[in-house]
Amino acid sequence: MDPTEADTWHLVARPPPRNRRRNAQSSRLRATPPRSPADHAAAITRAAAVLSQHRVFLEALMAAVHAAVPRGAVRRIRCLALGRVSDNPAARTQTAVLLALCVALGVARGEVVCYDPDMLPDDLATLGLLDIAAAATADEDTEDYDKHTLFYMPHAPIVLVERIMARPAARWVLGNDVLGYADRVLRTPSTHTAATGEMVMNGEYPAVRAAVAECMAADERTKSGEWRRTRIPDALARDEAWWLGVNDLAMHWRL
């Protein structure tokens, strides 16, 4: 080696330092592989298994259903406003409740029909793997259909609840507490006053308004055609990850 080169400094390029935090974040943001209807159906089956372990909530729910529905009276279940089971954990929990209702009421899955206009092809395929059919519309217009049907409507909009409760032969509705619907309409900022809220309830949602009044006035002096309700206490599931799928739930029935 040339003696003059021994004292010469050479610049060596170093690789840039690794940003472990950035790499960790980017790994979390990477797109996950698309899931199939079979994956969604398996997730619903797992949700049903989790639900079955929470006996206090499930027993309270089924006690309310059995108290309202005479044995063998319900032949089919109409599930409305379920949501997208392909991307909504709450919808998967609600579907798990639907499967539990089939067992409790002795209704075959082939007698269950779901409808939600927001459903995608993957949602329909997922329900099909669970032997649950999807309907083209929300309505079945025959009186015989209504009087043997449990309408399961978790978190349905009030306009849909109004349509179902206005049908004379509809007898059983499992969904959000009607008292809660009325309270939300009365407290909506656009209504401004309680008096205006009452006008909205009476003008746009008379069937729900009547059901609210009948449920609040429930006593021994009841008459045929009036609605009654049993609310499932939120506290039974509030600490669970799946609580948002079943909160504000009540069983409503018509005498």
Structure summarized in a few sentences:
With 255 residues, the protein is of the alpha/beta class. The protein has one domain (36-254): Rossmann fold. The chain has helices at 3-6, 20-29, 37-53, 55-68, 89-105, 121-129, 143-147, 158-165, 178-187, 194-204, 206-216, and strands at residues 76-80, 112-115, 133-134, 149-153, 172-176, 227-231, 249-254.
Main attributes?
alpha/beta, 11 helices, 7 strands, 45% helix
Strand elements, count:
7
* Oligomeric state of the chains in view: single chain
What is the overall silhouette? globular
CATH architecture: 3-Layer(aba) Sandwich
Helical region count?
A: 11
Sketch the major β-sheet. 7 strands, mixed
Strand order of the largest sheet: 3-2-1-4-5-7-6
Q: Uncertain spans, ≥5 residues at pLDDT below 50?
A: 24-29
What count of domains describes the coordinates?
Answer: 1
- Following the backbone from N to C, one meets helices and strands in this order, namely HHHHEHEHEHEHEHHHEE
Folded structure, characterized:
By secondary structure, the protein is of the alpha/beta class. The protein has a single domain, classed as Rossmann fold (3-Layer(aba) Sandwich), CATH 3.40.50. It has helices at residues 3-6, 20-29, 37-53, 55-68, 89-105, 121-129, 143-147, 158-165, 178-187, 194-204, 206-216, and strands spanning 76-80, 112-115, 133-134, 149-153, 172-176, 227-231, 249-254. The longest helix has 17 residues, at 37-53. The protein is globular. The model is unreliable at 24-29 (pLDDT under 50).
